[in-house]
Write a structure and sequence with these properties.
Blueprint lengths: L1 E6 L2 E4 L4 E9 L3 E10 L6 E6 L5 E3 L7 E6 L4 E6 L8 E11 L2 E6 L3 E6 L1
Parallel strand pairs: 2-11
Antiparallel strand pairs: 1-3, 3-8, 4-5, 4-9, 5-6, 7-8, 9-10, 9-11
Length: 119
């Protein structure tokens, strides 16, 4: 089993910053991609940013230039630095990881952390 534990959400004013963290633990061989998704009320969950094991990153157009994803492979942790936050960034943010264990590759989700940006 793999557990993803997120932290760092909260309430911030527009223009402010937050840093989210997601640590993976459990029994696995390797973590491939790690990413952040978000879901606002009444909307579908959407990809925010993702990073692969070789360091390749990809961002949603709406956050390019404001958000930065990074990972510490030694700690099995992925981060999302969010700057210049806007009210439309308000959502529950979920961490997602693609994990190799034995001969299988499985996806896991964190429990979500609320980010609220006030205008």
């Amino acid at each position: 089993q793999v557990q993803l534990v997120e932290s760092g959400g909260g309430l911030v004013q527009a223009g402010g910053s937050l840093r989210l963290s997601c640590a993976a633990s459990g029994s696995f061989f390797r973590i491939n991609a790690m990413g952040w998704y978000r879901q606002a009320p009444g909307r579908q969950r959407e990809l925010v940013a993702i990073t692969t094991s070789d360091g390749t990153t990809n961002y949603a157009e709406s956050v390019k230039g404001r958000f930065t994803i990074s990972r510490d492979n030694a700690k099995n942790t992925v981060y999302l630095q969010m700057n210049s936050l806007k009210p439309e960034d308000t959502a529950v943010y979920y961490c997602q990881s693609s994990v190799v264990a034995g001969r299988s590759v499985s996806g896991y989700w964190g429990q979500g952390t609320q980010v609220t940006v006030s205008s």
